[in-house]
């Protein structure tokens, strides 16, 4: 009798779960791999949900793999919800009544929208924005309305505002702080985002939070009341106050240690034998210096999924994220950040900031205040930098003056640096006269 093949069960078909499945298929061609997901049969790019809503893409366009791909690669898809873990028997119960036995189990259950128990949050027309059912609810509930209130000054909030705006519905934003996304952006960059919002004629109430949501006789939202005491009439409310790890399944196994997320070691192992966690739902027990314990990004989900597959395949590999990277778009304003780029001044770190006097273009370069003046990070708004070049400068601890002198190497937009390089260096020379560097003659452009 031949032994049954090694069986990996993955709960969640987001980027973390799928990256693990594809990597394990490569490392262990004979393994049986089952992917369980309650949201959709096929994996799709969550980051592109807003473009589906705005009609730029169809749902089929945001599936990175054709539907035949899964069968071809012997990846078994099960469209149902996993309801309970039974670690002693190495089994998982599913809502379709079946039970799956595993040799290894990956929990890749992602995040869920975080609400704050506001009165009225269960009224019809109130929602978060995370998954396909949120997309469906949005399409259904904002049809024909005049105004929607978006609560939260972060990346999902601005996406919701843009989605409503694209349909001619007035989005009104409630932002707790003095600027948009000031938890992540220094005041100068945040002010540029504020300006972008203003240019799109989106009303914002800064320093304002949601107090309660008011309903009509049919149980539908009719207004919100803010902490400033204002009552704002609206027909829809988007709660974009962050996400938290989805622990519903994890909580069915008391021996599985959780905190904000499922606690994992550097190999993404949980406290249960043969059980791993990766992606948004995982919380690193001992994150490396300067790293966050819970990473809620697309590329970190992919890296974690790929890394844990090696350990599951018997080639233990610790998770090392490397240099931080994030990007976003605030209406037409593109944003990128690399490396250590704190919001507020930090011991041992300073920054050089340049902003175009007329246009929404800005660059901030962070560097150590020690003699090395090693560059630690970048913020770019309205211009695009080359990822690999920035990473290399950060990794090699390149001095600030060297980076400034070679800035054109990070140039993604061919027309940008010839036009602005001299102005950037001039601004640096004004801010740091004791380290002034030579301004290169303007290069001619040939198109
Ligand atoms: C609107 C939006 C825009 C975003 N934009 C960006 C961006 O521009 N850049 C970026 O880096 N990140 C972005 N993110 C974040 C990024 O999408 C997430 O970090 C990433 O998708 C997380 O991947 P994951 O595999 O960990 O989990 P998820 O993608 O959340 O997948 C987990 C899956 O598991 C399923 N599941 C959970 N529990 C069970 C269960 N018990 N049984 C069966 N299935 C279950 C869930 O339904 C879900 O489908 C965005 C997120 C949102 C919501």
Automatic annotation (TrEMBL):
It is an enzyme of class 1 (oxidoreductase). This is FAD/NAD(P)-binding oxidoreductase. The lineage of its organism: Bacteria, Pseudomonadati, Bacteroidota, Cytophagia, Cytophagales. One of its GO terms (molecular function) is oxidoreductase activity. Belongs to the FAD-dependent oxidoreductase family. Transmembrane segments: none annotated. Residues 7-292 form the FAD/NAD(P)-binding domain. Its EC number is 1.-.-.-. Its cofactor is FAD. Gene3D superfamilies: FAD/NAD(P)-binding domain. Keywords: FAD, Flavoprotein, Oxidoreductase. Coiled coil: none annotated.
């Amino acid at each position: 009798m031949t032994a049954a093949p090694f069986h990996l069960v993955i709960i969640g078909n987001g980027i973390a779960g799928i990256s693990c499945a594809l990597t394990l298929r490569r490392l262990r061609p004979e393994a049986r791999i089952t992917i369980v997901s309650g949201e959709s049969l096929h994996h799709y790019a969550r980051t592109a949900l807003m473009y589906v809503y705005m009609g730029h893409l169809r749902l089929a366009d945001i599936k990175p793999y054709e539907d035949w791909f899964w069968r071809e690669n012997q990846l078994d898809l099960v469209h149902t919800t996993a309801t309970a873990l039974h670690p002693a028997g190495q089994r998982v119960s599913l809502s379709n009544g079946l039970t799956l036995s595993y040799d290894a189990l990956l929990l890749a259950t992602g995040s869920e929208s975080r609400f704050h128990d506001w009165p009225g949050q269960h009224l019809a027309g109130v929602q978060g924005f995370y998954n396909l059912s949120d997309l469906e609810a949005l399409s259904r509930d904002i049809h024909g309305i005049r105004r929607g209130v978006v609560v939260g000054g972060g990346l999902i909030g601005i996406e919701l505002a843009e989605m409503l705006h694209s349909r001619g519905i007035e989005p009104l934003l409630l932002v707790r702080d003095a600027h948009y996304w000031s938890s992540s952006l220094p005041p100068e960059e945040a002010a540029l985002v504020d300006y972008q919002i203003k240019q799109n004629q989106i009303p914002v109430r800064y320093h304002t939070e949601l107090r309660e949501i008011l309903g009509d006789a049919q149980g539908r939202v009719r207004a919100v009341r803010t902490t400033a005491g204002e009552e704002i009439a609206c027909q829809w409310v988007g709660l974009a106050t962050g996400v938290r790890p989805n622990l519903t399944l994890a909580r069915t196994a008391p021996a599985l240690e959780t905190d904000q997320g499922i606690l994992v070691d550097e190999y993404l192992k949980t406290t249960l034998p043969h059980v791993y966690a990766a992606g948004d739902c995982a919380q690193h027990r001992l994150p490396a210096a300067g790293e966050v314990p819970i990473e809620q990004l697309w590329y970190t989900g992919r890296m974690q999924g790929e890394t844990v597959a090696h350990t599951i395949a018997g080639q233990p590999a610790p998770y090392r994220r490397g240099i931080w990277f994030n990007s976003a778009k605030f209406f037409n304003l593109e944003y990128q950040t690399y490396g250590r780029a704190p919001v507020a001044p930090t011991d041992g770190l300073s920054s050089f900031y340049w902003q175009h006097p007329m246009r929404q273009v800005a660059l901030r370069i962070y560097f150590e205040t020690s003699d090395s003046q090693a560059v630690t990070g970048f913020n770019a708004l309205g211009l695009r930098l080359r990822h690999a070049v920035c990473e290399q400068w950060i990794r090699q601890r390149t001095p600030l003056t060297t980076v400034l002198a070679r800035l054109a190497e990070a140039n993604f937009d061919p027309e940008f640096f010839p036009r602005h390089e001299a102005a950037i260096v001039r601004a640096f020379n004004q801010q740091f006269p004791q380290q002034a560097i030579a301004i290169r003659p303007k290069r001619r452009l040939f198109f």
